[in-house]
TrEMBL record:
It is found in: Late endosome membrane; Lysosome membrane. It comes from the Eukaryota. Pfam families: Vps16_C (PF04840), Vps16_N (PF04841). InterPro entries: VPS16, Vps16_C, Vps16_C_sf, Vps16_N. Keywords: Endosome, Lysosome, Membrane, Protein transport, Transport. It is a peripheral membrane protein. GO terms for biological process: endosomal transport; intracellular protein transport; vacuole fusion, non-autophagic. This is Vacuolar protein sorting-associated protein 16 homolog. Residues 5-416 form the Vps16 N-terminal domain. It comes from Haplochromis burtoni (Burton's mouthbrooder). Belongs to the VPS16 family. Its main location: membrane.
Length: 788
């Protein structure tokens, strides 16, 4: 325990410690001198631009990207304009802010993604200073120009530039300034000599922090905490004022006795911090100033860069990296010299147990007498999460496991969860990965984001192992990793299409949640169309295959896949696309090779595009269907001449199709139409368009028996049909004499029972009796029953 506390330094009621994270694996010839350095929080990557103001075309600055452990990720010469500031977005994209206000965005591997400008007026006045900040809205940028004007972008992914009001009396850039996020608003706090101003969207307001007087001197440095809750102001007389960022409450006022402005000043505090502090760095000194007015001094040998974290400060030099943080209270309770906390006693009991000493029982009895064994286990588990050294973690977790054995109703969930999380954290902290996350940062970052970061950095095997170890559902874990891996795999130019397709199929297989069409789309974006087609063959869902094939202009293949799927909606989608993209001749030829698609398109045309249907039949020389089309079209034609013309066209096509029956029927229809028109003109009968039977019924009802007789003969109407029509017509008109004459004109082909039944139906028994005697013997009984 004495060894663990050897690096602790007291600050008020708390302790601070420096934990070695890495021996940096980079080899920087001149260290961090004359370089712009930006390190992302949460153990993120480090960007380094040497001599950023160098403008010689023959000797360009080098932009280098490293992991947090110093492993090289990317390096390339900077060919654009002079850079004022580097920064990282929340998704680990590098922002390079130039003098002319242009912001260039690169991914983690140095590939250019996009750029935007901070406004036209910035181009003319140039950027003097810039800051990258993170807010609930995303990653933002604030700049101040040589004309002393501030421009702000709260979220670079939804760019809305805001030009803040002028600051009275400000010439050039302010002595210092920070960005504050308060009440869902982003503001700028700046100093001009001893005066403080807050700039928001509409106003510039002079503010005065409580307890800070103008006699303390000009404000030369300021810093806001990681959570934007606390603010620190340093004057040129060495006074350090700390308080809430709302400037409503003062925490402390410390005289550092340092009149030289520090290179960096950052807050160092953790959630539930006992003793928050401010870290100031000069060339050879690191000063930790607590709100308790006490300080800790650390000597510095090499130039360093400080990186603010939510629970401490990372100190990066050319040779190593350390984490400065307040020792968590639970760790203080366990490891503090002569501590009698339950966790400390349990840890000592376990050590004695490993030595086979009876003192282990004495320690356990003491904890049990206080009924604190459950609390002791909880303390050991919690403290293990805060420790970076794996041996210390093991000691604490073994002590917790030892204590659990003597508890009957203790829930193991926290113990198991911490064990798993520590194993994951230790894996990602390894220098080959370079993610020095603390347990507190991990909880804030969430497991899902950690996996995303591993995937983004292309640590696919580790990401998959983490997903499997923590039993994350496939669609959230392994499948998502495999999808990203496959998307990167298709971009490898040194492998053939067949090799990549086989590798992807072998690795991905039937993993749930992985869409081969998405992978194929990525291949197509990279200019590998043939590889995309090979990958689409593995896609089980045709609905996913077809849209990409259409995008790739592989219409024939898209149509085949749609037909194979059996999904008519999908076929219609492809056909509709082809119709718009191809000329009519090619379109029809394409459909001819796909009978199913052609049939569906014909069905569509019958309902929506009649003229197209005609062109289809012409293209296929389908005379039968074309004739049917003309017949159907004739019914929609109002004018007789047009109708006869269409029917004549139908006759011509039926002749070509050698359908004699259809020819005869259509010619009969034409004769009937002419006959109807003639009668309409002569008698005004309104017969045009009626069928043969209805025409005859109408003629009989109008008393035009000769004309009905003529139709009967001309169109060879069966005798039975004609007799029935005339019988019903005469009976309905009650022309009984005519009916009797008609019955005697010749032998009835429908018999005489029909006459009896029709007369009865018309309520005329007297007439019905006239025909009973003529009924055949086998039907006579029925006839007599009918007439009563």
């Amino acid at each position: 325990m004495a060894f663990i506390t050897a690096s602790w330094n007291p600050l008020g009621d708390a302790f601070y410690r420096k934990t070695d994270l890495y021996e940096m694996s980079w080899s920087l010839r001149d260290g961090l001198r004359d370089s712009l350095v930006a390190a992302a929080p949460y153990g993120g990557p480090i960007a380094l631009l040497r001599e950023p103001q160098r403008r010689s075309p023959s000797s360009r600055p080098q932009l280098e990207i490293y992991s947090a452990s110093g492993g090289t990720i990317a390096s390339f010469p900077w060919k654009s304009g002079p850079v004022v500031q580097l920064g990282w977005t929340v998704s680990d994209e590098l922002l390079c802010i130039q003098e002319d206000g242009t912001v260039l965005i690169y991914d983690l591997f140095g590939s250019f993604k996009r750029h935007f400008s901070m406004g036209q007026e910035v181009v003319q006045s140039q950027v003097m200073e810039a800051k990258v900040f993170h807010s609930p809205y995303g990653t933002g940028i604030a700049i101040v120009t040589s004309s002393s004007r501030f421009t702000l972008a709260t979220n670079i992914d939804d760019l809305k530039l805001r030009r803040l009001p002028e600051v009275p009396g400000l010439q050039g850039k302010p002595s210092c300034w920070v960005v504050l996020t308060q009440d869902r608003q982003t503001k700028v706090l700046l100093s001009n000599g001893p005066e403080l101003f807050i700039l928001d969207n509409t106003s510039c307001t002079v503010v005065c922090p409580p307890g800070l007087s103008p006699q303390d001197g000009n404000i030369v440095h300021m810093s806001v905490s990681f959570s934007y809750k606390y603010l620190a102001l340093l004057t040129d007389s060495g006074h350090l004022w700390t308080g809430l960022s709302t400037l409503q409450e003062k925490l402390s006022d410390v005289d550092t006795k340092k009149t030289m402005a520090p290179k960096q000043m950052l807050w160092c505090r953790r959630p539930k911090s006992q003793q928050p502090s401010v870290v100031l760095m000069w060339d050879r000194l690191l000063l930790v100033v607590g709100v308790c007015n006490e300080t800790i001094q650390y000597p510095i040998e090499d130039p360093c860069v400080l990186v603010g974290e939510m629970d401490g400060v990372r100190i990066i030099s050319s040779s190593n990296q350390e984490l400065l943080q307040e020792v968590p209270l639970v760790c203080q309770d366990i490891f503090k010299i002569a501590s009698m906390a339950p966790g400390a006693l349990l840890l000592e009991a376990h050590r004695e147990y490993e030595k086979s000493s009876q003192k282990a029982d004495e320690y356990l009895r003491e904890i049990k007498e206080q009924s604190m064994l459950g609390e002791a286990v909880r303390q050991c588990v919690e403290a293990a999460g805060h420790e970076y050294d794996t041996n210390t973690q093991k000691s604490l977790m073994r002590a917790a496991s030892f204590g659990k054995c003597f508890l009957t109703d203790f829930s193991p969930d926290q113990f198991v969860t911490t064990c798993r999380e520590l194993r994951v954290l230790n894996a990602v902290r390894d220098s080959s990965v370079g993610l020095p996350l603390t347990h507190t940062q991990f909880k804030q970052l969430t497991l899902q984001v950690l996996i995303d970061r591993l995937v983004y950095r292309q640590f696919y095997p580790l990401a998959i192992e983490v997903c499997r170890y923590l039993k994350i559902p496939d669609y959230q874990g392994v499948s998502r990793v495999l999808k990203h891996w496959a998307s990167c795999k298709v971009q490898q130019k040194d492998l053939t299409d067949d090799a990549i397709a086989r590798a992807v199929c072998m690795k991905v297989g039937d993993s749930p949640g992985v869409s081969y069409s998405d992978i194929a789309a990525k291949a197509y974006e990279c200019g590998r169309a043939e590889l995309a087609i090979k990958l689409l063959d593995f896609e089980a869902r045709s609905g996913e295959q077809v849209p990409l094939l259409l995008k790739m202009k592989r219409s024939q293949l898209a149509l085949s896949k749609a037909v194979e799927s059996g999904d008519t909606d999908l076929v219609y989608t492809v056909v509709s696309y082809l119709k718009n993209e191809m000329n009519r001749g090619d379109f029809f030829m394409t459909l001819r090779n796909q009978p199913v698609a052609l049939s569906l398109y014909r069905q569509f045309c019958k309902l929506q595009e009649q003229e197209t249907l005609k062109d289809l039949y012409n293209q296929d020389d389908d005379h039968q269907e074309l004739a049917n089309y003309y017949v159907t079209a004739s019914y929609r034609e109002k004018r007789l001449e047009g109708r006869l013309s269409l029917l004549q066209s139908a006759v011509d096509e039926y002749n070509k199709a050698k359908n004699e029956f259809a020819v005869k029927t259509t010619e009969d229809e034409m004769r009937l139409l002419r006959f109807q028109r003639k009668l309409d003109d002569e008698k005004g009968a309104g017969l045009l368009g009626l069928s043969l039977q209805v025409t005859m019924e109408t003629l009989l009802s109008l008393g035009l028996h000769k004309q009905a007789e003529q139709l009967y003969k001309d169109f060879r109407v069966p005798d039975k049909r004609y007799w029935w029509l005339k019988l019903k017509s005469l009976a309905e008109k009650e022309e009984w004499d005519e009916l009797e004459k008609f019955s005697k004109s010749k032998k009835s082909p429908i018999g005489y029972l029909a006459f009896v039944e029709v007369c009865i139906k018309c309520n005329n028994k007297y007439e019905a009796k006239k025909y009973v005697s003529k009924v055949t013997p086998e039907q006579k009984v029925k006839a007599h029953l009918a007439v009563g």
